[in-house]
Amino acid sequence: MSSLLQSSEQAIQVPSSSSMLLLRHRIKLVEELWESVLLSECGQELVTLLKKLRDLCSPEGQTTDLDKSTVVELIEKLDLNDAIRASRAFALYFQLMNIVEQHYEQREQQLARQATYKKSHTNDDQQNEPNTEQHHNSENSHPVGVKQLEKTWQGSDPTYQKAGTYQWLFPYLYQQNMPPAKIQRLLDNLDIRLVFTAHPTEIVRHTIRRKQRRISGILHQLDRAEEAYHAVGFSNSWEAETATEQLHEEIRLWWRTDELHQFKPTVLDEVDYTLHYFQEVLFDAIPELSLRLNQALETTFPHLRPPKNRFCYFGSWVGSDRDGNPSVTPQVTWQT
Fold it and tell me: Does the global pTM surpass 0.90?
């Protein structure tokens, strides 16, 4: 089945490496399932229209001067229903691509962390504990895993070289000769406070969020199934076929779901949508964040104490911001 939009290499700017082959393969699969849903739900006419709009655009998504008028003419000829369907089709496509990209970026980061810690702990088993009395610039005073991490940075895999991760931070501080005592003081006084805000136009229905999470979960299932049957030399498996069918059905259900609210959200609705992130994201993410910090710290500075368990706090403006929302009254604030 041909892809409606640009090829994977054009649509997503990714390096040409073996690590990206799985991503390209999955993008192609999702594109084909998306097109199949549109064919069965809307017919060939809409598919042909989307193809024509695609062909009139450059790989960067910008029309040339010669094609702008043609694109405008095509869109102006659409009645309201067809224009809505075309807009929804492209919106669904880009949301699906975002899920796929995010899933495989997280997957690569997870594999990179596992490989780094595996190598560093293997190095730990092969070396004696360093002499902590020596200056940490000396050859024999490297903490466990630092040499291995430094070699990893110098490798060709850009995943390991990303700034802003704990794996990058602590070895970087070590290289900059940051005194361990100063790092310990910073860890002891670590106090992060994240404040939630909300706006009615930014609210996404719980139904859509659940579909997004289910699609991400199916991608995980598909990964595990394909890895399992490739490991034993099989070319296909019923688990992978089942996951693909589930993915197709989720895309179909998403297409049939109205993404817009049929009512004006209230302040209490905004509170409910904010609590969603605690229930579905933060309860799992915060313990993992703490675990990653502790592991990275132990790898580079094994003698330092990790921060206290409650170093990250949360607040919210939702239900109390009277400057930005005229519906917030004292009674509403009391309810929230």
Answer: no
